[in-house]
Amino acid sequence: MAAIIALLCIFLFAFSPLGDALSSNYYDQKCPKAEEAITNAIKNAMMNDQTVPAAILRMHFHDCFIRGCDASVLLHSTKNTAEKDGLPNISLHAFYVIDNAKKAVEALCPGVVSCADILALAARDAVALSGGPTWDVPKGRKDGIVSKASETRSLPSPTFNISQLQKSFSQRGLSMEDLVALSGGHTLGFSHCSSFQSRIHNFNATQDVDPTINPTFATSLRSVCPLHNKVKNAGSTMDPSATTFDNTYYKLLLQRKSLFSSDQALLSTPKTTGLVSKFANSKEAFLDAFVKSMIKMSSINGGQEVRLDCKKAN
């Protein structure tokens, strides 16, 4: 979840919920074995790479927050001008997993299942196969045909404060409750030093380290991310159980052991602090809220066609 500025108003038309246009049984007659094929693709990928669930979940989020959930993040450009080439998306990976799922589904029912639906279902499976909840994914999304690297600037940044986060989410029709619940996705995965470097080195004119971060935690981060870091892939897991979907993220947040400024920002208002405490104390409450917010986010309006190849428009 990274970028620089809030969503430009000219994109607002693209972010309206599809509502009744989506259906949980959309493929029951058209392609009844599609979900099984997608789940198998995720399982196979996870056998070789434990980072796949976090990568797929992040990919889905980044897709939905640009032009709606239209799989435009999967489009390829020979001129490096597609969404996947934008600075916040350079670290996205595991695109091959979606390609493999698409090939499997196309073998069952050619031209029926959209890449956007595959990505939404894959994100659900990534969570469920990591020990998290499962849910019925409303389906019937269409794929987009436009993908611009420049638009990735509108993604929420790890340096955002609570006002910037609220604005970014509200422009997608998402509430403060959705913001806190979806932030729990940070329980999976890994972050490079660049996303939190500003909190542990030269924070401001008088303080080297962000005073809101736990001092012991900051020291540990500084050891893996020194000021003049030369290790290309240096960084930290989002939490110690980075391959298990649980509520550890919120517990660490209350201990001031979060990586991003945007994480810490969730403790800057009474409402969001209350939700953080609620989710830290009740895994069930978190999982229930996460499912509701994921369904809401993944129903943001998207594209126009069913792509035959997720990397290019028809």
Automatic annotation (TrEMBL):
Transmembrane segments: none annotated. Residues 21-314 form the Plant heme peroxidase family profile domain. Its EC number is 1.11.1.7. It is found in: Secreted. The record marks R58 as: Transition state stabilizer. Substrate binds at P156. Disulfide bonds join C31-C109, C64-C69, C115-C310, C193-C225. Removal of H(2)O(2), oxidation of toxic reductants, biosynthesis and degradation of lignin, suberization, auxin catabolism, response to environmental stresses such as wounding, pathogen attack and oxidative stress. This is Peroxidase.
